[in-house]
Amino acid sequence: MRTIELKTKIKCCSYDELDEKQKALVDVAKKQTAHSYCPYSHFHVGAAARLKNGEIVLGCNQENAAYPSGLCAERAALFAAGAHYSDQPVESLAIACFTDGHFTKDPGSPCGACRQVMTETEHRYGGNMEVILYGEDKTYIFQSAKDLLPLVFVSENLEG
Ligand code: THU
After folding, report:
1. Is the CB of residue 72 below 6 angstroms from any atom belonging to ligand 1?
2. How far is CA 104 from CA 46, 59, 73, 112, 144, in A?
3. β-bridge partners, 133
4. Which domains are delineated in the chain?
5. Which of 3, 4, 23, 71 yields a CA-CA distance of 20 to 30 A from 136?
6. 42 with 61: CB under 8 angstroms?
7. Angle (CA) 29 30 33, round 5°
8. Residue from 42, 61, 78, 100 whose mutation best tests the ligand 1 pocket (most atoms within 8 A of CB)
9. What's the mean pLDDT in 73-77?
């Protein structure tokens, strides 16, 4: 028996340390929290996906009285990107969370289902997708969606 140790690289910085493209995407994700439909959790999540052609596709969480029918902001954005621009790789995805009248101090942490969809999005276009998790006190940057989900299930796993 042997132990496998997995390492993840996360860049941690302040908003001011982001480059101009990253700042612009975070700004859009922050703005998008205002359009979130979250009457049950009151937790507003905004997402912004920047595509290779420069388009920015938006998403925000959409809740439902039948709770599991809702959708997270990240998946709303990535599925919209896939629907509107199916030939365009997603180069970067920014996420921001707003609750109790302010943006969260810590970066939002995407749920497992969103991490799975992020990695599939990256995999389908063959490149890497940067993920920026915004927080008022600190922001995390992942160079690849894979860094958020080690041992991810991908299409090759279906081949046995
Ligand atoms: N939510 C997201 O939209 N993205 C995340 O990364 C975490 C959680 C939403 C789902 C639900 O509408 C609310 O936040 C509270 O869980």
Report:
1. yes
2. 12, 18, 15, 20, 23
3. 95, 140
4. 11-151 (3.40.140.10)
5. 71
6. no
7. 90
8. 61
9. 98
Distance CA 129, CA 90 (A): 6
Query: Tokens 């943006």, residue?
Result: 103
Ligand 1 neighbour 114 (Cβ under 6 A): yes
β pairing state of 56-60 and 90-99? unpaired
pLDDT band at 160 (very low <50, low <70, confident <90, very high): confident
Instruction: Please indicate whether residue 143, judged by its CB atom, sits closer than 6 Å to ligand 1.
Output: no
- Catalytic residue numbers read 74
Quote the DSSP letter at residue 149: S
pTM of the model: 0.96
Report CA 103 to chain centroid distance, whole Å: 16
**131 close to ligand 1 (CB < 6 Angstrom):** no
Whose CA is closest to atom 13 on ligand 1?
Answer: 43
